[in-house]
Amino acid sequence: MAEIFRLSLRQLLGRWRLLVILLLAALPTLLILLIRLLSEAELTFADDDIINPIIDGMVVGGILPIVTMTLATAAFGNELEDKTLYYLVLKPVSRVSIVLAKLLATLVVAVPLVVASGVVASALVGAETQTLGTLALALAASVTTYASIFTLAGLLTPRALAYGLVYVLVWEGLLSTIVSGVRYLSVRGYTLALLHGLDEESFAAFEQRVIEFPAAIVGTAVVIVAFFLLALFRLRTMDVP
């Protein structure tokens, strides 16, 4: 498993892929610095102009799923594209270890980037330590959820990245915002509910559009486990080229 993990990590840390996701992760911080430079008004974390467009719209709704999707779909996608998955499954390693190694490699790269993206930007506008901890925990849980989904997607189709973008834009972006019932089946909905449930005061701006906190916890756990098991089933039953 350790060998597969190291191999997957090297694959995911390709120069161009890493450059793109680093630029994406830096966008909230760069935006806040630009606003500070061009505006005399003092920004605070409590402002709706920070909570809604930057934390929800930019970090949770955009950067988080796109960064995770870019990495997770490539976890198996590289082997399928290069037709080297056959040699991987021939190794005396269980399918569970292979899927777990791929998932962990994605998390090792994606979690620090996404958490730093949200936490650094929030710290620049005066968010308290407890708020930053809540943000880090919820973002890490959300990255794990998306990583589980998109790891399976990478095993299902070589066009997982394209389909993933449609899913993020339509389901997570559009429908989860305007249709309240969709939030019970939305990773974005789970993330906002986790933020509000863990720190109601700091994330009061989300109060009118989040699902129940227990539902968010259960939904997050179920999605992670279910899609991990589906990826394991897919790897065991697929015809490896």
Short description:
The chain is an all-alpha fold and 241 residues long. The protein is built from 9 helices and no strands.
Describe the protein in words.
- By secondary structure, this protein is an all-alpha fold.
- The protein contains nine helices and no strands.
- Helix 3 (48-82) packs antiparallel against helix 5 (95-124) and helix 3 runs antiparallel to helix 7.
- The longest helix has 35 residues, at 48-82.
What is the number of helical segments per DSSP (H or I, 4+ residues)? 9
Write the element-wise H/E pattern from the N-terminal end onward. HHHHHHHHH
**Oligomer state of the chains in this structure:** single chain
Helix percentage: over 70%
In the predicted model, the low-confidence regions spanning at least 5 consecutive residues are: none
Write the layout of secondary structure elements.
Blueprint: H1 2-12, H2 15-38, H3 48-82, H4 85-89, H5 95-124, H6 129-156, H7 160-178, H8 187-198, H9 213-237
Helix pairs in contact: 1-5, 2-3, 2-5, 3-5, 3-6, 3-7, 5-6, 5-9, 6-8, 6-9, 8-9
What descriptors fit this protein?
mainly alpha; 0% strand; single chain
